[in-house]
Write a structure and sequence with these properties.
Layout: E1 18-21, H1 22-30, H2 32-39, H3 52-71, H4 76-80, E2 85-87, H5 93-96, E3 106-110, E4 115-119, E5 123-127, E6 133-141, H6 155-170, E7 178-186, E8 199-207, H7 211-225, H8 238-256
Parallel strand pairs: 1-4, 6-7
Antiparallel strand pairs: 2-5, 3-4, 5-6, 7-8
The structure holds iron/sulfur cluster.
Length: 257
């Protein structure tokens, strides 16, 4: 059942820093109206079912890289892609990855807005020569097409990477503009299932630019403080659909009355 959320709502009068996750920044980017309805008024988009297979791939990749992290060694895939790095070992890694399911991850207070910006990373690697950090995101997929970052929906992946780069810079780390997406692609061309999926893994580098993040947070704060709901996004079909439904319902009621 869809219900209005009562807790974790933004209160413009409160002095307590309010948590804004990476995904909520993305929601604001997509549509300030949906963001405002969610964070200020407690009306969230309906939940999506969990992505259990993706989550299993994430966990197994983390386990695999954790073994190398403890040993201070590179992964074969890093060598294949000439990435001169090892998995980063840090006491806070479990918090940044939200290993304990507190759903906040790495966080930093953005003082100009009193918003606590947070995000859960999959992994971080460190360059063996320069000590720069590389933000790493694992992605599970299943496609026969060549994997790239150019599809429309993958623009969100790039923003995700840039927000994480911004957070870790704010936390005082030396972070490379380069980040890596590690894709695990489940093949679909075997003659039968045999109760197993076979994956091929690949790495796609991405050179991020986090220059937009600070100003987006300031705009997002203005949106949260606004006294009224922002207009619908002109590119989204759903508010138009909802308005048509509302008009039809009003017409129906008028007929009955
Ligand atoms: S325009 Fe779309 S994204 Fe925005 S509030 Fe309406 S339904 Fe949500």
């Amino acid at each position: 059942m869809v219900q209005k959320r009562r807790g974790n709502l933004y209160n413009p009068e409160s002095k307590i820093p309010f948590n804004i996750s990476r995904s909520k920044i993305d929601l604001f980017w997509e549509c300030p109206r949906c963001f405002y309805l969610d964070r200020r008024l407690g009306v969230s988009r309906p939940d999506m079912p969990g992505w259990a297979l993706n989550s299993a791939v994430d966990t197994l990749l983390k386990n695999e890289f954790d073994l190398l992290r403890q040993a201070g060694q590179s992964h074969e895939l890093m060598k294949k892609y000439n990435i001169d790095a090892i998995p980063f070992n840090h006491a806070e890694l479990g918090t940044w990855r939200d290993d304990n399911h507190r759903y906040i991850g790495a966080s930093v207070l953005h003082r100009p807005t009193n918003l606590n910006i947070c995000g859960i990373v999959d992994d971080i690697w460190i360059d063996k020569k320069t000590d720069e950090l590389y933000i790493v995101d694992y992605k599970a997929t299943s496609t026969n097409s060549e994997i790239s970052l150019e599809d429309e929906y993958k623009q969100g992946y790039k923003r995700q990477m840039e927000i994480y780069q911004w957070i870790f810079r704010q936390l005082g780390f030396k972070v490379s503009n380069r980040g890596y997406f590690l894709f695990a692609n489940a093949g679909k061309n075997r003659p039968q299932f045999d109760a197993k999926l076979e994956f091929t893994t690949s790495i796609i580098p991405y050179d991020g630019n986090d220059a937009w993040v600070g100003s987006a947070i300031v705009e997002l704060k203005k949106c949260l403080d606004a006294p009224k709901i922002p207009n619908p996004s002109p590119t989204c079909k759903y508010c138009g659909y909802r308005e048509l439904v509302r008009q039809e319902e009003l017409a129906e009621r008028a007929k009955v009355a």
